[in-house]
Amino acid sequence: MAVDVERIIQCIKQGDQDSVQTQLHGYNTEFSECFFYNVEERERRKQEELERFRQNKVRDYVPDSDSDFDSEDSEDPDLILRRRLAAALIWFIRMQLQPGVLRVCLRTLRILSRDRQALEPLVTDTALLTLARLGGITSIPEPQEVDRDIELHVYVNDVDISAIDEQSDAESGLHASTDDVTDAADCSETDIQADASCTSWTTEPTASKAQAQSDTDSLSSDKATPSHCEGEVEDTESHMTEGDANREGHGTHGVSHQTDASSSAETNVTETYPDHDCTSARHNTHGVLARGKRDTGTERGEEEDEEEDDRDVWRKEAMKALCNIIYNSQRAQERASALRLLSGLSEKLKEGTQAPEPPRGQFYELRLLFLLTALRPELRVQLQQERGVTMLTTALEQCLAVQWGEGYEVLTDPTAPPVSKEASQHAIEILKTLFNITYSTHRQDPDEEDAAIYRHLVAVLRHCLLLLCDGEERTDELQGHTVNVLSALPLQCLDVLLSVRLSKGSQEWEGINMDCVHTLLVFMERRLDRGQKLKEKLTPVLNLLTESCRVHRETRHYLRQQILPPLRDVANRPEQGSTLRGRLVRLMTHVDTDVKHCAAELLFVLCKENVSRFVKYTGYGNAAGLLAARGLLSGRSRVGASGRQYSSDSDSDTEEYRQAKGRINPVTGRVEEEQPDPMEGMTEEEKEAEARKLINMFNRLSRDNIIQPMSVTADGRLAPLSGKLRNCTVAEERESEEESEDEVD
Fold it and tell me: What is the pLDDT of residues 296-308, one digit of tens each?
């Protein structure tokens, strides 16, 4: 059934709420899985015009309208209708509406907010503040009548905004407080579009409905980000990709992004929420007309319970629409920053952390907080300065029901059930935002107060690593975002990971509890086995383990025993086999430079940055890349090159290695079969002639810029040979070539 948008706008003008509800219900049903992208529409129109041209066989066919496919977006009649509808709805929802009407209006706005080209009426201050207050963010300015200008009248066409406002004024006494509006129990994720890569924050239009992904989360974590922003509603993320957590290049995570999408369009969230009382509000505060005996002050009944459910739906729909708008519009991001939406959102989250029970239904509030910090650098700084780390840490503790022991120890109950889906989703959003505001602290030297805050956070993060969620994939996702945050924190604060007392069943090494390090090792191995998106998924944990090994001797000893045990197999190349050592050595020649560097760096640190030991375990061919980058190709370790002091424990050789040591090829790292001498039986003159031929060939390849001959300098770095191979004159080369031709004849 075709939906008449003009008729919907006329119904809004007339204030006919029943007709508006009926018409918008049909609109929402038809476009619930549709995403408006001009690229797709233009491509469709091009095909239609081509088909009409073929049927009519008119060479000089002129389209009926210039807006068919080559005009600007503003001339697209469908786009204009969507903009007009969005503008009309923004003003309509500020009236006194019936609960069902408000719900369907917000759902339509959520659908319209997917279209980046139709966002102009939704990026005004009034629209943003109205949606924010409907979403439960009340510590913000009241929406003012500042947008009643020519532009809005153009969008709304003949909708009499002043009449709507007058009606709203007359009914202002019936407005209810938006404090009571909470997230919806129905959490369909088909409304927020985001790129999996949190770093780029740009998305290409999807070709069809089936390919449309959910949004406001990747860039993941992950996806996340920044460095992990790493951002869809699952991950704008979402999900910051987790690769954004790479120490060498932090960004926003997720936005990370995004970004690794941490969830798909099929993801559904089921949430339940506590009841709230409805209080009266002043004019211009949006509310709804209460049902049944609500206004008479009678006890709560079934109708009032239904009303509470309506508030859940309203709040979720408003927050989802707001997340879409913020993600899709740079203008909306700027206005959200100027309107201090972040401060209002922070106040609401702080109130939730002070409640006796963990608040429920905060998923989209946390998602919006992630988006704001991922997309606006100044908001990351603002949230950090407003003690955002402490607030988010408290929210994370409350979400996971953390119980403290002595010092920085979180008590773990092995008999506790897995973390629920709702709690894990909230925890992931908190972790992505934490990464956004802490990724720059890695190289900082915090003062005593900040160090205590970070150590407190690390203790909670250690608890996150050891938790099991409802589903293996969700456990992996939670651990991934936890790793991202750990990789962003000051290294000296990570000692908390090893400060937990030993208990029955703990992984022990040298009297230290290694449960956390063992979990990180298993997590790294699991990511290695998958072999997908190694840069986003694997590099954060590689970096974290590398830095931990540099500063914590016990961690290095434990990981070396697990990854580089005493060498016994000298018959195979180091990169062969399914051991952790073999898989990491294979990554040392990976096509991605970041992956290659991170894997080599971890092995190099496990060898205490000793060149000979590094070559022993990896082979000179695999190790050459890192050695060249560090100026260690000469084989001599430069004193103080890394700035780290390692213990003097020796590398004990096994009996198998000592017996085969003299026959090991240092380039390949294994015992090679003896090869016949190619110059056996040749005279000295013949050997000299072969050497000159080889030099001449290298010389020609170098002159033609096919290769660049290099040599190792005294400081262990590569440098061009600077003509050392060009001592042969052109005449000598020609003479050599002529001699070769004579021999052939």
Answer: 333 344 344 444 5
